[in-house]
Input
Amino acid sequence: MKNSTHYLFSLGFTNLYGMLIVEEMFSSWIIMVLSTITSLFSLVPNIIDRYVNVQYENEGVLLTRNRHPLTHSPWTVFYFLPFLYLGQKSNVTILEVVIILFTISWLSHLLIDSLNPGGLPLGKRSVFSNHPVKHYKFHWTLPRNTKRIRIARIPFNDPRVNKNLGYLGLFIFSLNCARMFLSLFWSY
Output
């Protein structure tokens, strides 16, 4: 999917979290600013893959793979567990909220990528193996029998899907904005 689709979809989901869960702890304006900034984190997997560009040889032909299992795998959510633990121990609720917003934006990127034909790689063995990422070769080629999470087989560059997912994120964002502005006028 396009980077703009990833950002807008993440913007909608981080705002949805702010609107439903965190609204009572902070001002709506703070949540709006935090979700707008942390939604940029949904672009990190694509940025890493763009600048790493792993090259491998397949039947004598040099190919470039733009997807890492270390950035586009559901197991990457475990990267955030130490940060969530530290955020909870620091007694600073804003830090914990920011870490959760980063996690939600990363998950929204993975959710959109699971709609593609490539899906999200899990590894050669079953989903609950002891070392899910261990079974990749050194140069990150995906074996043919790799297990994947795939919700649909929508092409990467389908303009209708990109537009509709972007509109969905903007719709959720606009609902939060409308609720925030209406609460200014009818707060009594």
